[in-house]
Please model this.
Amino acid sequence: MRDELRYIGKKIVQNEFELAKEVDDIQDNDYKHRLESSGFPASEFTAYRAELLRYFGEALYMNFEETVEKVNAWGEKVANKAIYYNISLSDSLIAISNYRTVIWNVFTEELEQRKFAAKTMLDVSKIIDPLFDKVSRIFGEAYENNSKRLMAIAYTALEELSVPVVPIATGIAVIPLVGAIDTHRAQLIMETALREGARLKISHFILDISGVLIIDTMVANQIFQIVKALKLIGTQTILTGIRPEIAQTIVSLGLNFNEIKTHASLKQALKELGFNHRKNC
Model:
């Protein structure tokens, strides 16, 4: 039985490039067009296919664990290449399924010509199928990790946009806040204000909360912490944009804003800092 497996494995290895071309031949035209459009070099693709087919062949007669390690390395390498060239996961998995078709075509032909025992087919399946599953899993994990990485980048960019620092004069900047403030966002506001305050040498920050819908005890405490942290680096904070309904909520909750300088509007805060409205002559 081992002789039959060795024979089939050797035949796959000896014909790896011819079989790699067969993998390409059975792809549909739409898939081929997408692959060509991706910019992935055709010669590299053929070489990668031949390499994987060689490992499948070697698995039938060489040390299986060593072959698994080679397949793992191949999967990680080629998956990253496919991601780089924007080849979809579905197209990658379609290609992997076609390797199986080509290998079974080889085996079926030899089975008919050499009258291999039926058990040989089962033995080949037990060796080859787990390798196919492993390659598919590696590709799936690589694409999932890439998606998480892109989402993290997008989320970081979105977070940065959620805390805009707008310099309006030397030493003066505005941070207009919109939406809800939770613990995580409050920490981001503090970090951004401290970093940009030091970088821009800000002496006065105007924290405009006219776009913040809810001010409760937790949000108020977060604002207090931000103001205290800025004060430690010599930056004064003016709070603006407290709407009447928010002011009523603050009073009903018994929150004390006496330690924070406040103004009803950004315009009033700017006027205090020396900005005067001038009519055009």
